[in-house]
Amino acid sequence: MAGNEITSAEYIKHHLTNLTFGNHPDHGWMLAHTAEEAREMGFWAIHIDTMFWSLGLAALFSYYFYKAAQKASAGVPGPLQNFVEMIVDFVNDNVRGSFSGRNAMVAPLAMTIFVWIFLMNLMDLVPVDLIPWITAHLGIHYMKVVPSTDPNVTFAMALGVFFLIIFYSIKIKGVGGFVGELTGMPFQTSNLLLKPFTTVINLILEGVNLLAKPVSLSLRLFGNMYAGEMIFILISLMYSAGWVMGIFGGGLQFIWAVFHVLVITLQAFIFMVLTIVYLDMAHAEHH
Predict the structure, then answer these.
(1) Model pLDDT for residues 159-211, shown as the tens digit of each residue
(2) Is 96 a catalytic residue?
(3) Taking Cα atoms as reference points, which of 157, 155, 136, 159 lies closest to residue 49?
(4) How far apart are CA 27 and CA 47, in angstroms?
(5) pLDDT category, 286, cuts 50, 70, 90?
(6) Which of 22, 80, 83, 245 has a beta carbon 3.0–4.6 Å from 241's, enabling a disulfide?
(7) Do residues 128 and 15 make contact, with C-beta atoms less than 8 angstroms apart?
(8) Catalytic residue among 103, 152, 220, 240
(9) How far is residue 144's CA from residue 24's CA, in Å, rounded to a whole number?
């Protein structure tokens, strides 16, 4: 924040606006210079900062885990191997406790989800002004560095899990079994006159339950991370209110950062566990 050059509302709005590239109806393909221009670009605009940080963190995660796998040995493990083995054991314990089917893809998927979301959430602990200040000197107007505060990321990950739920439900149970689950429970009857009504009611109830899974997954992660980022931004405003409020703000920021370490870990864990549970339900056959 640069002194009194912008208001608190403008500061908050700036820090919550993504660097957007898209086709503006008046100016063609361009980077948005204002939030209004980003809005006018419509649905097909791309959040460059979200893509950069999310893919960059995925590459970082992949590199270090691949490096640990390449150097793994049966002897005394190094720090990196110790760290990776600890995460692998943690994820495997959760998969064994929550997944009763047989699918070699579930554990790697769960580990990828947990580590990737944790790294994206971890960016919330970077000082809110640091990276935007650096990029501003490079002529970049906006820079949101926490990908999980962008609903495009959380919904994309949740939809990926949702498609896997549908895929394995049909693969394991067949189309008939999957449709039967949606229409045959919770209300059951052998009365031919009542059966059409219970089928419709079951389809509505189970359909809502099925669609609620990706929505709850995405909104839970987005809501918690967005709220956490907002609190950091509000605390940072205190530094412009004099040295007394600045010292007080520094104390608050430290306390919130320590607490937020638990939040970012918990959110990654919840997303991982729910993914495992949903896939377990997709593999379970009901008779």
Answers:
(1) 999 999 999 999 998 888 888 888 877 777 777 777 888 888 888 998 899 99
(2) no
(3) 136
(4) 18
(5) low
(6) 245
(7) yes
(8) 220
(9) 21
